[in-house]
Amino acid sequence: MHLNKKLALAALLLGCGSATCQEYTQQSPSPTDMHLTAIEFVNSDSGWVTASWANSGGLFETADAGQSWDTVLIREVERFDALDMIDGSTGYAAGDALYKTTDGWQTWTRTELPAAPQGTHTGVSSMQFVDANTGWLSTRPSGAQSYLYSTIDGGANWTYLGTFELDSWKFNDASVGWAALLDHSFVRTNDGGLSWTPVQMPASITTSSNVIEVFSYDEAIVTTFQDAETRYSMHKTTDGGANWDSSLPGVPRDAEFTDQMNGYGFEQFGTYSSSTDGGMTWTEDTEAEIGHEKFTCVSVLGDSVYLGGEYGYITASADNGATWSQISKGSGQDLRRVGFADSQHGWVTGDGTILGTTDGGETWNHLPGPVLTNFFQLFHSGPADVWPFSATDVAIRWNSVNLIRTTDGGQSWTLEDPDDIWPDGRIYLLDSDTYFKYDPAGRRIHKSTDAGQTWTAGPATVPPLDAGDTILDFYFYDEMNGWIIGSPIIAFHTQDGGQTWTETAQIIRLPSPVYRRVRFVTPDIGWMVGSYGLILRTTNGGDTWVEQTQPDTFDDTNVDLVVVSETEAYLAGVSDGQSMVKRTTDAGTTWIEQYTPTFGAHGNATANNGLAVVDGNVWTSGIFGSILHGQASGDCLADVNNDGTLSPTDFTAWIAAFNSNAPGCDQNGDGSCTPTDFTAWVANFNAGC
Length: 689
What we know:
The protein is built from 4 helices and 56 strands. The protein is mostly beta strands.
């Protein structure tokens, strides 16, 4: 009670007005850039997927047949490996913990996994519910063993059924189930798993096996591995294993049957097949392929089939596989640069990927790219800078000086200057008409004022580069002031449009820095950033530079820079393996870390590659198709609900953030969500904004 009074008093005295808090949300192509681990639809519109990457995971929901997805849960320290929706309201998701909802994931309850009889759990390997209350789950304690549990009260209590060397298992109802063991044998139960009876199998089956479907205590379909050439064979019994019908080799390992005759299966390597004779023969459907990505899960609902794969790929059929359409697609590729023409229209480039948005990043569409046979190979070779001129007009550089440009929002592209490729050259587009190119062989700057149709070559006055030198950024603030920077510690500046160049004073540090990005907000005021946390600022056009300090140093590569005003700038990069964005509003005297959650692959040590800031919105792009969005703000961390004021409701919001491991939980800036953040929140609250 005393604490609540203190909080209420602080809210009255120290309300932070219009302050908001910096939190980043994932905007990757729907539903996620992570690998899908389970997919389940309960009707033609309502579906859910779980996804995991390393030790992170998420749960995502659609209410419009996959056209758009909402993030239900994101856990930076927990995987999601299993999903079972009973209907549109009640469902379970599990991985490193168990989550349950009874209102369609509007709210959910998180519980720890059942107590392990010995050792510890390393996550849920399988989970199945046959109704809202009756279900089973198996966990991975260590090695080849699995703990098996059952519940009859919706997960409130669990019964330990034993320790098994399980390969797979499946139940038909509350009593009947089958399990495949790692010794290549099968067992079955008719009392919910309390006791198990061995199943007689043909002597020829001596390899790994999998339970596909259970129809009754006597009737089941299983697969066994044959060899690398023929893959799997399928076996079906109607008399508890006394007799078996076996298919020819070459069937899918994983499948789902809607009845005793009709099944849908997939191989991990992007192939899908169906059977109408109980699995004895299978027809492969190449129309369902998703390229080189792998299928990881399947859901069947009447005539509709949904296949999930790596990097958020989902393809669906509404007619039992006769025709297919891709309803969702993650990038699956590293994203290099991001650019916005306004707060709604933006583009992201990556390895063989161009994405576009017209709604501020709420949805991202894969754009077709130019009609080039080698486009997706060439696009991998460079950072692919983006120049957004308007909502429909954008140019992209890839593979040194090559340019592509669209004037219809990315539906069609024009390859500009295709015959003039200079190795190690660079190009910079000042505006939609004014281009600059650097020719390292002739040491010349070429200028165009008609969007690259014609070029005027300047004098060969750029200082020669030594062997091993590499240009990493080529930038013009206006038609007169330009920069060439790179490795090792290369920095040349022109004030006459490239007629003459001056080498800037080098910053000598150990280890020696590499200049990576330079940007100006006036001809005199700008920043330059490089490796090992180097941040330089100039107020005299680069004649002299002042090194600025920050509490954390960025790693050697993948640093991007945006300068907003004479006092405000942003940095994106990686520090100690953690992706982050930093902002200064006092000309670099202090840099404030903007909280950047490690959603899925975005937490990898080579995450933040691109950065864009428009109208107070911040976007950053990273590996495996990760895109994050945040709002420019101050450091009012205590305003957890982002309503612009401090009040006791922020305490409720912090509790919710703590329980769901949401970004607002981290109040002490250590990048994690722990009980110590409560003390930090109280201090932040009492300090005000």
